[in-house]
Design brief:
single chain, globular, 156 residues, alpha+beta
Length: 156
């Protein structure tokens, strides 16, 4: 297992993020992803995620495996809830459970995060990992014009 660490997205080369998000496999389970990204789109994305850090004191990280960028995600405040996202490069999908465990351990230790929500597109069929974490289904919701399955995990 590689050494996993989290860093701010602002420390990652925007070309790496643009290449990651332009991979056609990413759009399969990301209904809000539209078209390929360029470096400008990656920079705008990082600026928006940094704004969350400034507003809420927490936001999305870059996930690193042995120091190399393997994806992004983390906690973003949606209304009064903290939503958890995990978006890995396809060649790093297998690191998802370990990264999620590390991030959720962070949430359990942070008094600001008494619960976490997960929004998954209905195209996701394998939901056993969420059940093993203890997340419970809450039905369907609409977010930015797309339909998602919503799950909740109590962390406190």
């Amino acid at each position: 297992m590689p050494d996993l660490s989290f860093d701010r997205l602002s420390g990652i080369d925007p070309a790496l993020i643009a290449a990651h998000m332009s991979d056609p496999r990413m759009a399969e389970h990301m209904p809000l992803l539209s078209g390929p990204w360029d470096i400008g789109a990656a920079r705008s994305f990082v600026a928006a995620k940094e704004a969350c850090w400034h507003r809420d004191g927490l936001g999305h990280w870059a996930f690193l495996a042995d120091g190399a960028y393997c994806g992004w995600g983390g906690f973003q405040k949606e209304g009064e809830e903290w939503d958890f996202g995990l978006v890995l490069r396809p060649d790093r999908f297998g690191l998802g459970p370990a990264i999620a465990r590390k991030a959720l351990a962070f949430a359990q230790a942070d008094p600001r995060i008494p619960r976490v929500t997960f929004l998954l597109p209905p195209s996701r069929r394998h939901l056993g990992a969420l059940a093993r974490l203890g997340a419970r289904p809450e039905g369907e919701v609409e977010h930015s014009g797309a339909r998602f399955l919503k799950f909740r995990l109590e962390t406190a």
